[in-house]
Amino acid sequence: MAIGGSQWAWLGDMELDDTLLGIGAAALFPAPPVAIGFLVNAEHCADKVADAGKNMMKASSMYHEKRVFLETFFADSFFAVMDRFPKGGKGRGWVGELDLEALSALEDACKLRDALPAWLEKVAASKPSTLHLVLSGPLLGRGREIFEGLRNGLAETTRVIIWTYAGSFNITHSSEEDIQSMRTFIESSPNHRVVETTLKSGSWLCEKPRPFWSDACPPGWTLEEAKKNPVGFDMSTDIQSVNVFFQEYSSPSSASSTPPGSKRGLKWILEQLSEGDGEGSSRIAKLLADLELRSLTTNLTKMVNPTSSSMLKVREALSEEKQQELEASFKKAVELVESLQSSSGSSSSSSTAAALDAAKEAAQRYAELYQGQHGDFLESGCTEYFPKEKPFSGPRLDKRCILRCMAKGQLQGGPTADVLIVLAMLLHLKSLDPTAVSNAMSWGDEGLPENTPVCCTLFSTPAASSGQVRKISPSDQAPLAQGLPADTSALFRLEKGSEKSPNALQTDLAPGIVMSERAKKALAPLVDAAAAAAVLGARRLQAASAVAKGKGATSAPWGLAARSTTEDLRGVTSIH
């Protein structure tokens, strides 16, 4: 483990956008993360079990999805930070009623043990001169422990910069004490900073939070506004999908790519990581298929189903003929999805791919019924079609995004959310910590033996992984080493967000910018850099894990092996 200098640590709740943040951040700092903390939120990671006494919860499908991301990209090495936010209220769903004793059942449900003290110890042991704390999740009642632990464990001269996404979900699942603890910590030194990003209007410490895309991509549009500025309306929709954002707002890839000129969507990013390895390509294809199936299932059955109350006025605006078709089209799509789910793991990859294609085609036909009289699903994203009794829970832009993705057979994959933190780092890390940027290209292949075979095992099984990794080439680093063009950087600003907390900063699109084709062209290098960072960072993390395991470690340098999190944490070590 590197000691001193600029270091980074991470606390995240490990969804897809967190994953892209984590691998992207690994390309921007001088060393691997000193510690990764998995924020285990009971509302996401557990399902309620009725009449089960103390064992009132079981691990959810979402929890298992998060673990797949941790295993695939971070060597299944992490420190579990368990939910200890009791009586959190209705905003936390069914877990909001639980007391601390009831919440403790989460450990057994997930087969994890809390390791926050070990995470703090690991961070302190790195003795950073500057610590970058990446926060992409709720604090779950652990804020006081986290920030007091950092204050007690780090040197008084250590500068801490928190990079975070202030989404409403993260705020809701953090207690008032959590937020006050963050504020007290940030204000304890004039050198500390927090850099906030948000898609809507959430904030940790800023008094008047500004959405990252400012007025260019507002969260609400009328029909007239949407028709007047279709580029801005579409981007406001597209940022609800991490896949579409990367695909539609990056530059076309090189002429040598397959197919030539293809965009840097999520599929492109993952395919770069499996390059040259047959087993890795097979594993990545399964990962993408699983992501598509889960996204399709959730969106079809929970978000845009034909009985959704938030879509009522949208359905009423459809022709009578299309309204009658909805139920039959939906039923057929759901039957195919459920059939695919029940046969998952028992069918060949070719038959599974064919079944997924059939389910996507059926979902496409269902989604196309919502195109509306104005075309291109305008009604699904405009405020005129919000239910009057629930004006803030109408179709919203995420519903339009889901329908557009479904109609095109595209993976939606959830909003950009935490990916905004990577964009903020690409824009502002240099001004806040020039040393980190100057040394960021200095790690990657350290410790790998000479003539290591070029073989990406990031997506292969532990048994197949023999320390062979794809060597990191200068071309991997080029998009980041070149820096951002001046007209790209000029699109954004970094400013103080609070008079009460002068160390709280927020970043957003500069005032007066209208999203146009010209603005999209200027934005593309930033999106390109984020995609390149994801590829480079994932390769760096895989290389660091291979080196550690080659030296006999049981885990990657940034955490405990997953099996260790279910055992006594005492005496568990890894080579750093």
Count of helix runs: 23
> How far do the termini sit from each other?
4 Å
What's the story with the biggest beta sheet? 9 strands, mixed
Helix content: 40-55%
The helix-and-strand class reads alpha/beta
Overall pLDDT confidence = 85
Your description of this structure?
Helix content is 45%, strand content 10%. The radius of gyration is 23 Å and the shape is globular. The protein contains 23 helices and eleven strands. With 576 residues, the chain is an alpha/beta fold. The termini are close together. Strands 9-10-8-7-6-1-2-5-11 form a nine-stranded mixed beta sheet, with helices on both faces. It has a two-stranded antiparallel ribbon with strand order 3-4.
What keyword list fits this structure?
576 residues, alpha/beta, nine-stranded mixed beta sheet, two-stranded antiparallel sheet, 23 helices, 11 strands, disordered C terminus
Q: In a nutshell, what does this entry contain?
A:
With 576 residues, the chain is α/β, with parallel strands linked by helices. It contains 23 helices and 11 strands.
Set down the secondary structure blueprint.
Blueprint: E1 6-12, H1 16-25, E2 36-40, H2 42-45, E3 46-48, E4 57-59, H3 61-74, E5 77-82, H4 100-103, H5 105-110, H6 116-125, E6 130-136, H7 143-153, E7 159-165, H8 168-172, H9 176-186, E8 193-197, H10 223-228, H11 230-238, H12 242-249, H13 266-273, H14 278-303, H15 312-316, H16 320-343, H17 349-368, H18 396-408, H19 419-432, H20 434-438, H21 474-481, H22 486-489, E9 492-496, E10 504-509, H23 517-550, E11 560-561
Parallel strand pairs: 1-2, 1-6, 2-5, 6-7, 7-8, 8-10
Antiparallel strand pairs: 3-4, 5-11, 9-10
